[in-house]
Amino acid sequence: AQSVAQPEDQVNVAEGNPLTVKCTYSVSGNPYLFWYVQYPNRGLQFLLKYITGDNLVKGSYGFEAEFNKSQTSFHLKKPSALVSDSALYFCAVRAFGFGNEKLTFGTGTRLTIIP
Amino acid sequence: EAGVTQFPSHSVIEKGQTVTLRCDPISGHDNLYWYRRVMGKEIKFLLHFVKESKQDESGMPNNRFLAERTGGTYSTLKVQPAELEDSGVYFCASSQESTEAFFGQGTRLTVV
Q1: CA A69 to chain centre
Q2: Strand B53-56 and strand A24-26: pairing?
Q3: Rg of chain A's alpha carbons, rounded to an integer?
Q4: Residue A114 and which of A52, B14, B25, B39 are 20 to 30 A apart at CA?
Q5: pLDDT digit string (tens) for B26-82?
Q6: DSSP state of B1
Q7: A5 — contact with chain B (CB < 8 Å)?
Q8: CB proximity B98 to A under 8 Å
């Protein structure tokens, strides 16, 4: 079975400060890892993914995430937060390979950037 | 290129009624998924189509839920009869093989 934990329901960060949204996962075999964002009254938007290769992946809107296999983590980061980054963020995992396409999501972290 | 489209965006129905949700995937995407988020909880997988075939329906909660994808294009998810616990946001997503899934804006279903 695969699972995702987002330990923080809410993260508040001052505008201009660095932000981190935490995610740890459990999956059999090698993972595919994803971050999605949901803005108010919008659907889920893909931010970035880790499939293989460099542990630091860069995505949309200046976000990046670091895959750490030993800690089974995939934390989302941004060096300087913007008010427009305020949204609900979901981490997701799926197992590597054909036939394992379903995503398992965390419960989401609401990020609020304070002006 | 059009994204994943879901209809309706909102639906309020009474317990015992029937509701049908529709999803139009991105053109050319063989994989189509349905997910559901109950208020405040995680987004949970319901089922996965590859073209018109059900690849995985392990997440379907019970036999009140019926999903179809005739012709391998758009998909419908019917809930009959609806119960209070079916309330939530239903997301549809599509993908090409082994790539990220692109989600629609969701259908917010409220059963009263």
Answers
A1: 15
A2: unpaired
A3: 14
A4: B39
A5: 999 999 999 999 987 889 999 999 999 999 999 999 999 999 998 889 999 999 999
A6: -
A7: no
A8: yes
Q: Does A72 contact chain B (CB < 8 Å)? A: no
Give the Å distances, CA to CA, from A81 to A57, A64, A78, A113, B108. 18, 12, 6, 7, 30
The average confidence (pLDDT) of chain A is 93
Residues of B in contact with A98 (CB under 8 A): 97-98
| A14-58 confidence digits (pLDDT tens) | 999 999 999 999 998 889 999 999 998 888 999 999 998 899 999
Q: Sort out which chain B residues have CB atoms less than 8 A from A50's CB and list them.
A: none
Mean pLDDT value of segment B9-15: 97
Q: Minimal Cα distance from A48: which residue of B?
A: B100
Residues 5-24 of chain B with CB under 8 A from chain A are 6
**In chain B, whose CA is at the least distance from the CA of A35?**
B100
Largest CA distance in chain B: 39
Alpha-carbon distances of A89 from A4, A22, B9, B12, B34, rounded to whole Å: 13, 10, 21, 26, 19
